[in-house]
């Protein structure tokens, strides 16, 4: 079990490396805070008892000690919190980068199936849960352990049996907490599963509530939702119950330990082996230890959730360590032909693309046509190698990888919340301003963009809200053109554009880049564009049945 | 802003009222626990006093020792009981919150509002965020006054100076609260802004991960994410420095109070101080006040820790509390009073006020029984709104009469049909059950015979979440099939052919015409000329 958990936690804990010193400092400060707390109470008890009973003793050093412990505890606590939060924040930043790296190492076909909005939410939630790893699991556990052992050492100067009691108490509390953590492990998996199911049903219900109410079935769905919610509540309640029970056991045990220490030190006192002030000091240090011990169950009750979050993040971003990206170099100016041989693609158990063959030559414009929802995009993704082919093959001539030689305009004009320049050149290849303007001019975007005060450095806003759908489409197309690959696979490049403009653009682009292989996926064909004057290539017509 | 905050507070108070009893019990147990602790500590102190000052033997103090055992274990037991009450309170409160949310959705729809998937997510995180309020904050807000007061009384009776010392830090309690509160508020405000900035970068990259990969832009994006994280860390840390100060002040006072009590008692016992009862101090009273000092501050510390539960709950409550009441209808549509035979609906002087305050007025009209009635008009003219009025999902002014057939329910054909991750059969049978034979015949009728043939598992074939694996046209034809198979006499469809390929649009058009021919009343809102051409009756809506 420990080894399996370790496998899920290791990738995250590994990131601690760079912050090792801050982490050590944080641990030391947390430990100091705990020890100063114990010291303050014990020394105060010693001082009072001594003051009441002893006739002559040095009163100034205990007085100074008490003042020191009081101030030092406050200061170390404050600094400790800052240092540890700093470490967590730094770790979180690293986790985000690591997560992103893993995600990028995933095959595109898998990324394609992610539902982005859900994925983002899930990631943020799980990353937050991972915070607990350091602040609520690791640190309290270590501080409690070290403080207990130091206390045992301190006690052993008075009586070895006391040390044995301290170690026994430490072991027992640790055992209770570890058992709690182990139980929450399985519970958290259930909790997450039920919560996800509830989320899905609740979201589906509100999304279709008009339909559900029209059909008079909403009350049934209300009941079903409440039942699911109850199941979740029961699980949450159970987790709390376990946590509270563990807390109870720890408290009982801590009280027992205190009583044993009490009995032992009083016996020692009666036998004359301990002084009265020492008795009180030992008792009060046992009291202060209790406070540390009872904190642990509350903290470790969250173990299951943290582990589940770590597991989910790994599953989400891929179990495999990211490999260094292979540099996809290509020779820009060459001509390449794209050859499809008896391509068949299945999707969700259905044959979406059935037996498509084509020889797509450079310098010509080829079309994939068909009604919406018929599998055009599926075929494009199969060409890109994002989807497995059921049979047949896709190849380039001369032979080369599609990855590095096909520029692909996806159906959505995705925009980064960044400058125009960053959007047009996401990989930050070396481009002169002239390169940008040349392409923008071809797409009739130059006057619009030069009229913006910041021109290429304009921020496009979230999802490119600055621009209309048609403008975004052309910007996305400009991005593909600037990538300068020999084969251009364009999925609905003219969406949101008026047809005369689309025709004009196509003619101008093909003229500007005569060596490229153009493959256009569109529900409209050249005839609807009023037969643009471009070298005509193949037409692949997809039919549904 | 202030009205939202006010209704959020009211919402929390209403929920708190439902858990009055368990919270009261939890409070009682909390108070008893404090009392038990006081007694336990008093026994420890008197044991010490008897042993060291009076020099009595352990055997003669056995009764004290037994009482100590009893009270030590009682302390843990009462904690367990208190926690049980708090669990009950939390469970009850979140159940109420969920039920209220469901009722709120119903009311929102009745009031003409629209809901999205994001509303559904309110059942998750916001309700979770409420829990800390009920499981920690609520009872702590009472205990933070009561428990220290109890200890203060004991201390005063033991030694007035110690009492005054603790009391002096007493008036600081509200100050503490203000400090902690301000710190927490500032923290959450600033934090929200920074989280937003960070998540913007992070979400943006995540959303576009495919494009990033397609353009080999991973490294550049990684750099951005790392930089944003670093900026977030620096900014957050500077706010934390201030926010943690407030709790440091609290720590400081509690440490200084313990030290102050210890020094005062110590010097008093030594005879260096002899004013105001210092000369009356004994080991018993001295030790007891020392032991009580940390307990005096413990509720405060817990309160400070639970303060962010309150902030989180208020944040959640602003999402969960009832939004502004929508203007209500003049009344429910009158059923069949004075409606001539052969009509399904008739309205006069009908008007609707939209959320933005815009009013749509409809010309008087009626819809006959049987036949295909099309409601047409350009986008934004109020076609869909009229459908919603007919569905009783929109408040209106004026006079609307509807047929008794409405009470048996409507077969509603949605643009984005409700599909579950289940079998094809389950999806068709979602609202009404039909035999497999009927379904298979129906599938052919809506032109999905090919779909059934292409699925090796037939009707048992699993559909993905939200109908994944089916094209938009196929999804809509499944929804149409539900209407075709239903016995309900009224079929209402909203833009049934919009955004569809020609084949699907044609099949849907044919089916609606066929349905109308069987004597059902089919009402469609549409601007599709092909569908309009085949309607038996067209109602033109002009804004």
UniProtKB/TrEMBL annotation, chain A:
It comes from Idiomarina aquatica. Signal peptide: none annotated. The chain crosses the membrane at residues 21-41, 47-70, 133-155, 161-182, 246-266. Residues 338-543 form the ABC transporter domain. InterPro entries: AAA+_ATPase, ABC1_TM_dom, ABC1_TM_sf, ABC_transporter-like_ATP-bd, ABC_transporter-like_CS, P-loop_NTPase, Type_1_exporter. Its main location: membrane. Residues 24-287 form the ABC transmembrane type-1 domain. It is found in: Cell membrane. It comes from the Bacteria. One of its GO terms (cellular component) is plasma membrane. One of its GO terms (molecular function) is ATP hydrolysis activity. PROSITE patterns: ABC_TM1F (PS50929), ABC_TRANSPORTER_1 (PS00211), ABC_TRANSPORTER_2 (PS50893). Keywords: ATP-binding, Membrane, Nucleotide-binding, Transmembrane, Transmembrane helix. This is ATP-binding cassette subfamily C protein CydC. It is a multi-pass membrane protein.
Automatic annotation (TrEMBL), chain B:
Keywords: ATP-binding, Membrane, Nucleotide-binding, Transmembrane, Transmembrane helix. Residues 25-312 form the ABC transmembrane type-1 domain. Residues 345-543 form the ABC transporter domain. PROSITE patterns: ABC_TM1F (PS50929), ABC_TRANSPORTER_1 (PS00211), ABC_TRANSPORTER_2 (PS50893). The keyword Nuclease does not apply. The chain crosses the membrane at residues 23-48, 60-81, 142-159, 165-184, 242-269, 281-298. It is found in: Cell membrane. It is a multi-pass membrane protein. InterPro entries: AAA+_ATPase, ABC1_TM_dom, ABC1_TM_sf, ABC_transporter-like_ATP-bd, ABC_transporter-like_CS, P-loop_NTPase, Type_1_exporter. GO terms for cellular component: plasma membrane. GO terms for molecular function: ABC-type transporter activity; ATP binding; ATP hydrolysis activity; ATPase-coupled lipid transmembrane transporter activity. It comes from the Bacteria. This is ABC transporter ATP-binding protein. It comes from Idiomarina aquatica.
């Amino acid at each position: 079990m420990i080894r399996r958990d370790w496998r899920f936690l290791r990738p995250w804990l590994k990131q601690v490396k760079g912050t090792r010193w801050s982490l050590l400092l944080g641990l030391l400060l947390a430990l100091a805070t705990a020890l100063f707390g114990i010291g303050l109470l014990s020394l105060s008890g010693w001082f009072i008892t001594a003051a009441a009973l002893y006739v002559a003793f040095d009163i100034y050093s205990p007085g100074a000690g008490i003042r020191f412990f009081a101030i030092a505890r406050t200061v170390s606590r404050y600094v400790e919190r800052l240092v540890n939060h700093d470490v967590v924040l730094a770790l979180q930043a690293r986790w985000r980068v690591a997560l992103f790296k893993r995600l990028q190492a995933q095959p595109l076909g898998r990324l394609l199936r992610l539902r982005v909005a859900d994925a983002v939410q899930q990631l943020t939630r799980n990353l937050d849960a991972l915070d607990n790893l350091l602040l609520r699991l690791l640190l309290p556990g270590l501080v409690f352990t070290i403080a207990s052992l130091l206390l045992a050492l301190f006690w052993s100067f008075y009586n070895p049996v006391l040390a044995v009691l301290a170690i026994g108490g430490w072991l027992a509390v640790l055992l209770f907490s570890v058992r709690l953590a182990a139980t929450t492990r399985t519970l958290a998996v259930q909790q997450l599963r039920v919560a996800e199911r509830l989320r899905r049903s609740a979201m589906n219900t509100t999304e279709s509530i008009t339909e559900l109410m029209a059909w008079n079935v909403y009350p049934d769905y209300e009941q079903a939702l409440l039942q699911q919610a109850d199941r979740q509540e029961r699980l949450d309640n159970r987790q709390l119950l376990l946590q509270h029970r563990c807390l109870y056991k720890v408290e009982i045990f801590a009280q027992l330990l205190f009583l044993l220490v009490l009995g032992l030190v009083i016996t020692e006192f009666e036998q004359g082996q301990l002084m009265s002030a020492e008795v009180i000091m030992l008792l009060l240090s046992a009291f202060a230890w209790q406070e540390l011990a009872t904190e642990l169950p509350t903290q470790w009750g969250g173990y299951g959730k943290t582990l589940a979050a770590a597991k989910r993040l790994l599953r989400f971003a891929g179990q495999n360590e990211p490999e260094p990206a292979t540099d996809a170099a290509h020779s820009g100016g060459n001509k390449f032909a794209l050859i499809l041989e008896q391509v068949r693609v299945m999707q969700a158990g259905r044959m979406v693309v059935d037996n498509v063959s084509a020889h797509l030559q450079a310098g010509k414009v080829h079309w994939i046509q068909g009604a919406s929802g018929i599998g055009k995009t599926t075929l494009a993704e199969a060409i890109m190698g994002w989807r497995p082919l059921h049979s047949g093959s896709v190849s380039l001539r001369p032979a080369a990888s599609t990855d590095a030689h096909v520029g692909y305009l996806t159906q959505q004009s995705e925009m980064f919340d960044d400058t125009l320049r960053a959007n047009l050149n996401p990989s930050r290849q070396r481009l002169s301003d002239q390169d940008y303007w040349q392409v923008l001019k071809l797409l009739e975007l130059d006057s619009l963009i030069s009229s913006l005060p910041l021109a290429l450095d304009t921020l496009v806003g979230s999802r490119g809200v600055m621009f209309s759908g048609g403008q975004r489409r052309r910007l996305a197309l400009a991005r593909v053109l600037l990538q300068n690959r020999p084969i251009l696979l364009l999925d609905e490049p003219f969406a949101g554009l008026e047809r005369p403009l689309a025709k004009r653009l196509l003619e101008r682009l093909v003229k500007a880049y005569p060596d490229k292989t153009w493959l256009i996926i569109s529900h409209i064909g050249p005839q609807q564009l009023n037969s643009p004057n471009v070298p005509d290539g193949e037409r692949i017509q997809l039919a549904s049945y | 802003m202030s009205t939202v905050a006010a209704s959020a507070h009211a919402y929390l108070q209403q929920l708190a009222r439902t858990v009055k009893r368990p919270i009261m019990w939890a409070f009682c147990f909390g108070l008893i626990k404090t009392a038990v602790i006081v007694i336990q500590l008093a026994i420890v102190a008197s044991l010490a006093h008897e042993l060291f000052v009076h020099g009595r033997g352990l055997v003669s103090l056995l009764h004290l020792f037994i009482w100590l055992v009893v009270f030590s274990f009682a302390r843990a037991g009462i904690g367990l009981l208190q926690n049980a009450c708090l669990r009950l309170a939390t469970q009850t409160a979140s159940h109420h919150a969920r039920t209220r949310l469901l009722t709120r959705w119903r009311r929102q729809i009745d009031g003409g509002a629209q809901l999205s998937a994001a509303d559904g997510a309110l059942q998750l995180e916001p309700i979770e965020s409420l829990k800390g309020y009920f499981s920690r904050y609520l009872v702590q807000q009472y205990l933070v006054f009561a428990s220290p007061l109890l200890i203060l009384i004991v201390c005063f009776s033991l030694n007035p100076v110690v009492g005054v010392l603790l009391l002096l830090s007493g008036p600081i309690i509200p100050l503490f609260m203000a400090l902690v509160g301000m710190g927490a508020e500032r923290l959450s405000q600033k934090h929200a802004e920074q989280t937003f900035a960070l998540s913007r970068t992070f979400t943006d990259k995540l959303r576009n991960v495919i494009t990033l990969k397609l353009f080999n832009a991973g490294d550049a994006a990684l750099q951005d994410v790392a930089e944003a994280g670093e900026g977030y860390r620096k900014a957050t840390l500077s706010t934390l420095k201030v926010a943690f100060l407030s709790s440091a002040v609290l720590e400081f006072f509690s440490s200084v109070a313990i030290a102050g009590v210890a020094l005062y008692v110590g010097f008093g016992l030594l005879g260096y101080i002899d004013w105001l009862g210092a000369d009356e101090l004994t080991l018993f009273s001295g030790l007891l006040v020392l032991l009580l000092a940390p307990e005096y501050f413990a509720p405060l510390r817990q309160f400070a820790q639970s303060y962010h539960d309150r902030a989180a709950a208020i944040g959640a409550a602003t999402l969960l509390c009832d939004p502004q009441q929508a203007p209500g209808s003049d009344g429910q549509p009158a059923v069949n009073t004075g409606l001539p035979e052969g009509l399904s609906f008739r309205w006069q002087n009908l008007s609707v006020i939209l959320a933005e305050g815009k009013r749509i007025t409809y010309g008087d009209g009626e819809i006959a029984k049987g036949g295909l009635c099309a409601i047409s008009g350009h986008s934004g003219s109020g076609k869909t709104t009229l459908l919603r009025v007919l569905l009783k999902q929109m408040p209106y002014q004026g006079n609307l009469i509807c047929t008794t057939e409405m009470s048996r329910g409507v077969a509603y054909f949605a643009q984005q049909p409700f599909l579950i991750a289940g079998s094809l059969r389950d999806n068709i049978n979602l609202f009404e059950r039909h035999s497999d034979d009927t379904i298979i015949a129906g599938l052919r009728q809506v032109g999905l015979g090919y779909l059934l043939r292409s699925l090796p598992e037939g009707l048992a074939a699993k559909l993905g979440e939200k109908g994944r694996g089916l094209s938009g046209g196929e999804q809509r034809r499944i929804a149409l099939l539900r209407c075709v198979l239903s016995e309900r006499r009224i079929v209402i469809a909203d833009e049934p052919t919009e955004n569809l390929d020609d084949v699907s649009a044609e099949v849907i058009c044919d089916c609606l015409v066929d349905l109308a021919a069987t004597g059902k009343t089919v009402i469609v809102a549409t601007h599709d000329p092909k569908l309009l051409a085949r309607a038996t009756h067209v109602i033109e809506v002009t804004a």
